[in-house]
Amino acid sequence: MKQIKSIFIFAVILLSTNLAIFGQGNPTNNDTSDAKAVNIPKLTIPPGTVATGIGGEVRVKVQLDETGKVIKIDDIDGPRWVCPSKAKNDVLAIRAASSAAAQNAVFSPAIRNGRPVKSSAWITFLIPNKRQFAADSNKTTSGDATSASDNNASITKDEVKQVTGGIINGRAISFPPPEFPYGLRITAGPVVVSVKVLVSTEGHVLSAEPISGPGVFYYNARIAACKAIFSPVELMGQPIEIEGVLNYVFHR
Question: Exposure check for the chain: N or C terminus, fewer CB within 10 A?
Fold first, then answer.
């Protein structure tokens, strides 16, 4: 069973998981400090989830008591960019594994006015997608890691699971237009937002990540991309996933 390290950041970079600490009480300049991560357990990736191609950040919000112990999981979301309606078994399994790892995290307590207080923190786990996971699995474990894969190796029918299709707007059989952000005005010409998508073997968009264009349009472009539908694609007689880019044009 494969394991990965959790990645975390605390205020400035600390070790490597993204932590946002919210202490309770009235902080002063003296004898005040936030909860600090002492140990974040390794995350065990649930069997079979990598094969689905889902990856990205999973954020878990935890409540800490006065000793820094995790006493409750407040919230969990992700993997990042997974379409809201695509909470399949693999997504739920990843969230459950992330929650279990976060439950066993160890923190030093937050201090307010010289006294330990309850606080909360966000822990972000980075789940590799299928391509990243395969690359990591081919690396050596000591020194400068290098890939042991052979770029000239032949590809068998059973190995073809996903292909990259470039811009795939023309492949969609249903391509709902994005809604224009309410109250926003454009003084220049049309705005283009590009969204990287992963399309399932059934033709539904599993994940959508905005990669270029003005950030104010990202949310609407992503929601539209998640609603796109494609004809299933086969290669060598096998159904495959398509990774590509959808371009959305916003104009008044």
Answer: N
